[in-house]
Design goal:
The chain is of the alpha/beta class. The protein has helices spanning 28-36, 63-68, 79-95, 117-121, 144-149, 165-178, 195-203, 236-241, 270-283, 301-314, 327-330, 337-351; strands spanning 2-4, 13-22, 25-26, 43-44, 57-58, 106-112, 156-159, 184-191, 227-235, 248-257, 292-294, 322-324, 353-354, 371-372, 378-379, 384-391, 395-403.
Amino acid sequence: MSRDRISDRRRAVAISGVGAVSGAGLGSEALWTAVTDRRVLTGPVTRFDMSRYPARCGVEVPSAAVAALDSVVPGHESLAARYLAAAALEGLRHAGLPAHGPKQRLGAFVGTVMATRPILDRGIGPGRLAVPGLGWARPDGVLDTLRETVQVTGPTVLLAPGCAAGNSAIAAGCRAIAAGEVDVAVCGGVSELSLEILAMFTSLRALAVDMVRPFDVNRRGTIPGEGAGVLVLEPADRVVARGRRPLARVLACAAAADAHNPTQPHPDGNGLVSTVHGCLDQAGLTADDVDWVCAHGTGTPASDGIEARAVAKALAGRRRPVVSSLKGQFGHAEGAAAALEAVVAVRALAEDFVPGNVTLIEPDPVCGGIDLVEPAGRRTPVRSVLSQAFGFGGGVSTILLGKGESAAG
């Protein structure tokens, strides 16, 4: 297991801005409003012909929001590249930082699953061997529009650890901040809905036909989504020196690989348990200090039960861990999923609100060791949030976030 020691108060990592593009539209405010309004954004896919598929739902960035990108970022053949740049610009604006600042060392740390693969998808099919003018899509092409709109003077890192991508990118940015390599880290994850992804999950029989129901006894699978989520990280003392108030703190990050199965987590959730313990050890907290577990919760029959048992084991304390998954509302945005969930977690800390399991009707008895939040959510003090993500191949990445008011320590 990798443990990223970032909780030293002399190098406390603060979140100064957030940005998002999602099935709710452009902006982090649209994302949060959808959460609190309990909107379920899954629906029939319109971008591809899904008539031959038994499950035809997805979560698309609305067409009006895609059109609105023209006034925000330059054009690019990859929607993912545009989603990422738009989220980054919002995050920097939210943080009160310029997109072009010659005196700031800014690094970009981005997680993805398929990167620019959808470009290739458009060139594959009956009678099509290539798309004129596109050639071979470069994975790092997903960073093109970001580089065009933001002056990146520090490292540019593209990570692809499966659906743990967003948390892995946040952890990489934290390490760079703590090591003094950058002043500002733009961190997040991005995904563009891909016909290949839909076909792959169909072949795995992992898709729900109408709705994602994490932790429900009648859950039948997940539904792919898309978008981008970004956190802007800085040393806490730098944020305060600029006269700003940190939105939240990154208390700890941890990663593990249980190397059990290409597509399924270890039945005992060993990787998740080790990352949760690693985060708590780093932050000097106990299980009872965690007020919300933002679960991976994909709605697949096997994964949710394993995750519930692992969370109950890792956070055994005086009370059952409080758990909910956002994928019932937003589907599984793959490379963007954990990053979008981190954006929601930052707002949950500020608003003292725990989002609910919006599509939960009948909790599965195998998930009895955790406290599943009712669909309406809960108004309650939220001091810290544990957000976890799994990737195919056994990768697990977990981050622990705390309130921002004591970030300068």
